[in-house]
Design brief:
Elements: E1 9-13, E2 17-20, E3 25-27, E4 45-50, E5 56-61, E6 71-77, H1 90-103, E7 106-111, H2 122-135, H3 145-150, E8 151-161, H4 163-178, E9 188-194, H5 216-225, H6 244-247, E10 254-260, H7 266-277, E11 284-290, H8 297-300, H9 305-319
Parallel strand pairs: 6-7, 6-8, 8-9, 9-10, 10-11
Antiparallel strand pairs: 1-2, 2-3, 4-5, 5-7
C-alpha cells in the first residue's frame, strides 16, 4: 500500500509534471517511446548512442544518394520546459527524422538530463557535452562512423524548440566565446531557435504579455527547474540580461529565429532577435513569424501548411551556400 506521502502532491507544474512528498516525480506527457529503425518510409535510418554516462542521443542518417558526399550535421535539442520529453518520443523522433530527410543532414537528437531530478544547469552542460562529442569526429576522429563517414564537421548546425531553443542560444554563445570548436576543423555554421523559451520579469517585460504566464507561474516553474535559486530573471531564462557585447560572440554565420503569432513567448523572441541583430554580431539574423499559430504548433500538426512552410524555411536556411 502506498504511503500518504506518495500520493500527496507537494509541487505541480500543470499538464507537465508533479512532485509528491515522497520525492516521486510523475511526468504527465512525453513518456512514450518509439524504437530506432533502419526501414522508415522516408529512407532515414536511426540508432541510439551513448555519449557519456549522463548523455545519450538518437542519430538519423538520410538515404544516401551519393555515398562519397559529406552531409551537414544537425545537433537538435528537444523542448519540454526542461522537465519532459526525449528524442525517443514519437513527437521528436518523427520531427527530427523529417528534418534529416528534407535537409539531407546527419542529425543528432540529444537526450539531456531533465529537471527536477537534475536541475539546471544540467541540461546546458549535457547539451554542451553532446556538441563537443559531435565536434570530436572532425578529421576522421570520434567513435561514431555515421559522423566520420558521412558528416561534414565544418558545417554543424544547432537547432531546438522551446526550452531546446533556449539551450541552442547557450551553446552558440559558448561555442563562440570559448572557441572550443576550432575554425577549419569543426565549426558551427548556424543556429535555429524555434519558439525559444526566453522570459524575464522586470523592466524588459512587455506590456501586452498574457497575465497567466507572469509572476506566480514563473515562480512555480522555477522551483522545478532550478530549486536552489529564487530568481527567475537571469541569464538562463532571459539572455537579454547578458548584454549586447556577449551576444556578439554568438558562433556561426547566421541565426534563424522562428516564432508563432499566438505563442505567449513570441514577444520575448522578437526582443531577442532585435537585440542580437543590433549587438554587433557579424552574421545575419533572420526571423520567421507564423501567423495564427501557437507554441510548437509544427510538432502537433506537422502536416498543416504552416508547418510545411516552416520546415521549408529551416531546410533552406541549412542548405544555403554562402
Amino acid at each position: 500500500m502506498e504511503g500518504a506521502e506518495d500520493t500527496e502532491v507537494s509541487l505541480e507544474l500543470p499538464s507537465l509534471v508533479r512532485i509528491y512528498k515522497s520525492g516521486r516525480v510523475e511526468r504527465l506527457k512525453g513518456n512514450d517511446v518509439v524504437p530506432a529503425s533502419s526501414d522508415s518510409p522516408s529512407g532515414v535510418s536511426s540508432k541510439d548512442v551513448t555519449i557519456s554516462p549522463d548523455v545519450s542521443a538518437r542519430l538519423f542518417l538520410p538515404k544516401l544518394v551519393d555515398s562519397g558526399k559529406k552531409l551537414p550535421v544537425l545537433l537538435y535539442i528537444h523542448g519540454g520546459g526542461f522537465v519532459i520529453e526525449t528524442p525517443f518520443s514519437p513527437t521528436y523522433h518523427h520531427y527530427v527524422s523529417s528534418l534529416a530527410a528534407a535537409a539531407n543532414v546527419v542529425a543528432v537528437s540529444v537526450h539531456y538530463r531533465l529537471a527536477p531530478e537534475h536541475p539546471l544547469p544540467a541540461a546546458y552542460e549535457d547539451s554542451w557535452s553532446a556538441l563537443q562529442w559531435v565536434a570530436s569526429h572532425a578529421k576522421g576522429g570520434g567513435p561514431e562512423h555515421w559522423l566520420t563517414d558521412h558528416g561534414d564537421l565544418k558545417k554543424i548546425f544547432i537547432a531546438g524548440d522551446s526550452a531546446g531553443g533556449n539551450i541552442v542560444h547557450d551553446l552558440a554563445i559558448r561555442a563562440g566565446e570559448e572557441g572550443a570548436l576550432k575554425a577549419g576543423v569543426a565549426e558551427v555554421v548556424g543556429s535555429i531557435l524555434i519558439h525559444p523559451f526566453f522570459r524575464g520579469t522586470h523592466e524588459n517585460e512587455p506590456q501586452d504579455e498574457p497575465k497567466d504566464v507572469t509572476g506566480a507561474w514563473m515562480k512555480t516553474f522555477w522551483k522545478f527547474v532550478c530549486p536552489n535559486s529564487t530568481v527567475s530573471d537571469n541569464v538562463y531564462t532571459n539572455p537579454l540580461e547578458v548584454g549586447p557585447s556577449k551576444l556578439a560572440w554568438l558562433a556561426g554565420k547566421r541565426v534563424l529565429v522562428c516564432l508563432a503569432e499566438r505563442d505567449f513567448l513570441t514577444v520575448w523572441g522578437r526582443m531577442y532577435h532585435d537585440r542580437l541583430a543590433s549587438s554587433g554580431y557579424k552574421g545575419t539574423v533572420e526571423i520567421l513569424e507564423t501567423k495564427e499559430e501557437g507554441h510548437v504548433f509544427h510538432l502537433f500538426n506537422p502536416e498543416c501548411e504552416n508547418a510545411k512552410e516552416m520546415l521549408k524555411r529551416v531546410v533552406d536556411f541549412i542548405n544555403r551556400d554562402d
